[in-house]
Protein 1
Amino acid sequence: MAPPSKLFVTDLDTPPHPIQLHLIQLDKGPGGFEEKGRLKLSNVNNGKPFIVIVWVTTHPPCLKNLPQYELLAGLADQLESVNLIFLDYDPDRLKSEEMETLSKVFRDYYPPFPMYILDPQAPEAEHPRNQFESFIVPELIMLDPQRKATEHFVLNDRASFTKALTLISQPKSTNYH
């Protein structure tokens, strides 16, 4: 599917209900990625908004944008005020295949933030592709503390990623704080 021509997907494309994700948090061990624990987004009640970066390890545009994700490390102070979910989204792969692919992609580099994959036991209705009218990877979704989508960016180039990071780095000036 071709990327949309507009950078920002309006709130008409964001669902009015809270987003629900069932995730597996990963940790990089000596043999590659290992399961650290399971997370259900609705169980995170710390009053912080969410930033969900969705990408796929087998998708060339996502891999092309990987170096840009390193820019997030420079926003460490601002990111302390949010729940950052870096989600490798590939519902068609088995968990073991997904973790193996991640280990290859991140052989020499590990992101400075938590890495997640979808829980294969999650209900089909709670997969991201079933919660958004438009779902194109790579993308960045901002959720308020109640998990309602407030902004939705397609990260198809450096300009879109930079625009999203600019919004993230503006403390208390946008509607997701």
Note: Helices lie at 60-69, 76-79, 95-105, 158-168.
Protein 2
Amino acid sequence: MAKTEKLTEFEAGHGYDKADWDAVDFPEMTDEELDRLRPAVDVLPPEFFEAMRKAADL
């Protein structure tokens, strides 16, 4: 999967307008939230990973 640059300022042409951009409130995660994160393999069912493997083979 290609990495995309994280926008920090509004730029037209990405499928949303300035009002949409201004309406989003998505603060950085706190240290406490980061500490509670767990690996996907610990929280997602095995079927998810099997589906991802099958999709990668297409």
Note: DSSP finds four helices and no strands in the chain.
Protein 3
Amino acid sequence: MTSFTRRAALAQSLIVLIGGIVALALAYAALSQSPSSFIVVIGVFLIVAGIAFVIFGVILLVQASHAAADQWPGLYRKSQFAAANGFTFIPSEQQPDLPGIVFQIGSNPKSFTVFRGSGADAVEFGNYRFDLRRDGPSGYPLTWSYVCAARPLPAHRVILAPRGRRRSSFYDLSRLRRLPAGDPRFEVWQSRIGAVDTATLFAPAFLDLLAQQKLTVELNENRVFVYKEEWRNFSTIKAMAEVAEILDAIDTGVVTPRS
């Protein structure tokens, strides 16, 4: 349950609870003003409805409280993992300040379940959600997961994405040039003129990993970003193993390109 749905459930339970209390108060006022049979019937109905509303409201309130409490063990485990491995755990962050192309898309940007390192070779990984607006005033949310590693890279920017990925069309590529990739599995954009030979930028094993897992890689401002077009549940061993595999692949598979 997200923080929004928890707040909605809590508000719903409070409304029902208050409605029950108001019904009981009206019943008491009606019975105290007139003893007529019609008023008595209305009063009894309000009493029954009020009691039912109060019970239902208490049940909803308890359920909402339990749902919120269920989140704490997970947050605690993530915080403990982060502290033990030199990360800062950030449950949620509005307007994340990262230069990657994914972080420039849509409105209401928010990163969540973020593990952030520090130092010259800092590593960060987490999830990123935003609202994508199409025709009309409303939008719909999309979520990427990302891994970011600081590495000594030249000034020019390179984006390599698997062919046929639908979400690649959301990128703002107006300042980049689309060029032949040298590998039929990928599309490449970069910020300078000249062909890109993916073999001089990335080791073959790294390219194989990107193709198999449908990952996009970006070299940008001395950082390597690897994006996946879905969220990751970082409470699972599988997700952490995927992150470790990507970081190992970055260490061994990203060849420092010539400026």
Note: The two ends are 47 Å apart (CA to CA).
Protein 4
Amino acid sequence: MSSRYHYRHRRTRPPFRHLVRAAKLLLAVLLAACQHDLGAPLEVSSPASLAIPTQKPEVPTQHMIAAAHPLAAEVGRDILRRGGGALDAAIAAQMVLSLVEPQSSGIGGGAFLLHYAAKTGAIDSYDGRETAPASALPNMFLKPDGKPRKFFDAVVGGLSVGVPGVIRMLEMAHREHGRMTWWELFQPAIQLAEKGFAMSERLATLVKRDKYLNFNAAGRYFFRDDGKPKTAGTVFSNPALADTLRRIAASGSEAFYEGVIAEAIVETVSRAPINSGGMTLADLAAYRAEKRPPVCLPYRQWLICGMGPPSSGGITTLQILGLVQRFDLAQLGTNTAKSVHIVAEASRLAFADRNVYIADPDFIPVPVGGLLDQGYLALRSAEISPFKAGGRRAPGMPGVGAVRFVPDSSEKGYSTTHLSVIDAEGNAVSMTSSIETAFGSRLMVRGFLLNNQLTDFSFLPVRDGAPVANRAEPGKRPRSSMSPTLVFDGGGRVIMAVGSPGGSRIIGYVAKTLIAALDWGMDMDAAIDAPNFVNRNGATELEKGTELEALKPALEAMGHEVNLLTRGSGLHGIRVTAEGFDGGADRRREGVAIGD
């Protein structure tokens, strides 16, 4: 592996340690923007602090992983059993997900990762978001008449493909936190790709439903010779991916960003039969993973930390929690009209700010401190009526220096994955990765699918003569809603790792799960499986077929426009309890949480 490092390294350390109480946590956030130590290492064998005892039998006490496919979770657990750390398990599991859940994530996409090191108390935040090639233009998704193209007219083909970031990000994190060798972590996925695996029900269903997949290498991979989609239980191998992973395992990220793999990516994108793109070898070679400051906020007696820009997920989730903090959600009740109303109103305000202020921080000034300032959140929270919906909200003014762009609500994709890991030493990983829509651009190269993340940019670069913050530009990262999250108690011990797929609804899914666990006292499974409700500064969306449907009349009487939706989350989380680990995997998908 080459000794060259392909990352910009940003790391600051705070002037304080051993956070104990919420007041100290608040001071820590305001002074250090959450790039901080979190005190003594967690002893997993007898975790202290906040715990809701679980009644589940055979509670794991050593380590746990929650991931979107049983094979990925099993590989991650095996890595933990062999002495690997949380980061090692996450890398091995992600490589398997590239094979068995290709519609959701993979080495052709991007990711965000939070890592907590129990020994030092440090949180590291890794940005593996895709970047736009040098050929990208602000109007790249406009029709000749200046109007935006229909979403899937832009998705399919090479134009939507961003430079993938997963491999460089994981290599960066591995250099800093890996225990096992890079080569070892790829072997389970390589062996599985060669041996073959059974197609899951969910993958088979998505292949059957997709209208755009049956062309080029993807069509040949997912469909039979007679043109019909492969069915659940079909065992098929992926020797091309095995070869690709073997090269990366042996030579590191340079095997992906230079040489035959990079050449194949460029050729596939530039010669796509639909919407050919302008990605070059120089674009791939220039890609850099980033370390970003995590964003954190005290919530009651806990500290919640998430991913900062270019993801909007961390800030917006934290804003929702900060806005509801003055309300006693436990007293208002679990999934009642009153509690759902309060959270929905907070979400309106948070999304109003998100759609104006958050984009790639290397291109626009994002007022992170202002958006999470306690005084600002208190002023915004005062706008919430306990009895009446506020309708569409205008953005606030988070500080005198905040630059306000025009509103934009991008991100249509839903096919993403999340995994959570906590190891025996208390190190934790919360990682969300994606290729954007299901099957991404539908372009397959050397056994993996390429993303369509550039459609996360605003299709309209200008509105009413003013610029949109999330407009496409060369080298820019599109705004994301991915929300990998870590939760700490007052003693600085990690007590939860959680996240979800779901496009911009991810923010609502994660906020709901945190509230269900922390305010309503649910265990991890129950908090994840609790009905979803989301408001993105428009209609209040309730999960169809759940107890929330009964709240529709009451919410409408309060002034809400209510929509019932079946689109689901894919939450995966781990919580530390007095007995050990309490894991949860979303019943809406096919993942598992397993440990020892």
Note: The chain is about 30% helix and 15% strand.
